[in-house]
Specification:
By secondary structure, the chain is an alpha+beta fold. It is built from 9 helices and 14 strands. The protein has 4 domains: 22-104, no CATH class; 123-146 and 161-221, no CATH class; 245-309, no CATH class; 311-349, no CATH class. A 4-stranded antiparallel beta sheet has the order 2-3-4-5, with no helix packed on it. Helix 1 packs antiparallel against helix 2 (48-56) and helix 5 (130-146) runs antiparallel to helix 6.
């Protein structure tokens, strides 16, 4: 088994290049999970960093392989294309994503069904034809995964129990994604141009001498050495970037803002002076108190709430707050500044 779950108990972050435990979900379920995380960020400031980290691994994938996410400030939908995030309407159809999202809102899989090409085949015929039975079983398992009834881990476990053995002791099965036939030959899965035929199946007398080879092949199905020829989910490798820079506070009055609300509940102003989608590009200054990026129009730092001076005050040697310069970029700073307002480096006392 190659699946592994994300460890979200402490940081909420998972490996971006691994086979996470995935499940297909409806956009409504994902949006509900995002709203829950936004509520947790606002109402549980003690664990704010943990909830934000979980929000930043909120990534989904559609049937075409495009990755999606939800903005942490606006709760808008974004799709990743050509190395950039683009604000989009709510996606159509289910999206594949980490199972912890569904568990967060305790959503139950809905009872829905997809057309099964083997449904019209008589039960008696499938029972008498082991090759047809194998293909039908794998088709049913994969469709249950597409409907969100099974996680990727559960699907892998069920697929590992569906195989046939030919007269040479090779193990045969059907790929979970492309539905191609594969044979495990010399401990390697090899694509077969044609499916296994009934004539290739051994009878009881022919199977007995193959005992050791068959057991070895079966053992490989349950180890990382051979695993499955096709996993139900492709390698999970979402973009590491985010479409929105997190703004914890209103840029107009500095009060803590509620994610997803366009206006400040205290002052009524727009909580972000620039649209979240391009806010990262607008940042041109650094908060002198916490080192967070500040947009030109911001009156307050959206991270710590400190009031932002519209221009940098040039100090003289006679001032009570004697000027000094950043060791990294040479910008002039006030003695109270903890971070350079130009390059963001921490100021050494």
């Amino acid at each position: 088994m190659v699946s592994e779950t994300m460890n979200l108990d402490s940081s909420g972050a998972g490996d971006h290049e691994t086979h996470n435990i995935l499940v297909w979900m409806k956009p409504e379920t994902i949006a509900a999970a995002a709203r829950q995380l936004a509520e947790d960020i606002f109402h549980q400031p003690k664990y704010e960093a943990v909830h934000i980290a979980r929000f930043f691994v909120l990534k989904l994938r559609d049937v075409r392989g495009s990755y999606w996410t939800i903005g942490i400030n606006t709760l808008d939908w974004y799709r990743h294309d050509r190395m950039r995030w683009h604000c989009e309407d709510v996606p159509e159809g289910r999206l594949e994503g980490p199972v912890w999202l569904r568990d967060l809102v305790q959503a139950e899989p809905e009872e829905e069904y997809l057309d099964n090409p083997y449904a019209a085949v008589e039960t008696e015929k499938k029972a008498s034809d082991p090759i047809l039975m194998l293909a039908a079983n794998i088709e049913m398992i994969c469709r249950e995964y597409q409907l969100g009834h099974l996680t990727s881990q559960q699907t892998e476990e069920l697929l590992q129990g569906n195989y046939l053995i030919d007269k040479h002791g090779n193990i045969w099965t059907v790929g979970a994604r492309n539905r191609s036939w594969y044979a495990l030959i010399d401990e390697k899965w090899q694509t077969q141009l044609s499916p296994l035929s009934v004539n290739d199946l051994p009878n009881e007398a022919e199977l007995e001498p193959l005992g050791h080879q068959v057991l070895l092949g079966i053992a490989n199905l349950f180890t990382d050495k051979a695993t499955l020829p096709e996993l139900p989910a492709e390698l999970w490798k979402p973009p590491r970037t985010q479409p929105e820079v997190y703004a914890a506070r209103c840029c107009s009055c500095g009060v803590r803002r509620k994610p997803g609300e366009a206006t400040c509940y205290q002052c009524g102003a727009d909580t972000l002076t620039t649209t979240s989608a391009n806010r990262a590009e607008k940042i041109s200054r650094i908060c002198s108190d916490c080192g967070y990026g500040v947009a030109p129009e911001d009156l307050f730092c959206t991270a710590c709430g400190k009031r932002i001076e519209p221009t940098l005050t040039v100090l003289t040697d006679d001032s009570d707050n004697t000027a000094h310069r950043c060791n990294s970029c040479g910008a002039e700073l006030a003695t109270s500044d903890r971070f350079c307002t130009q390059c963001g480096i921490a100021v050494t006392p």
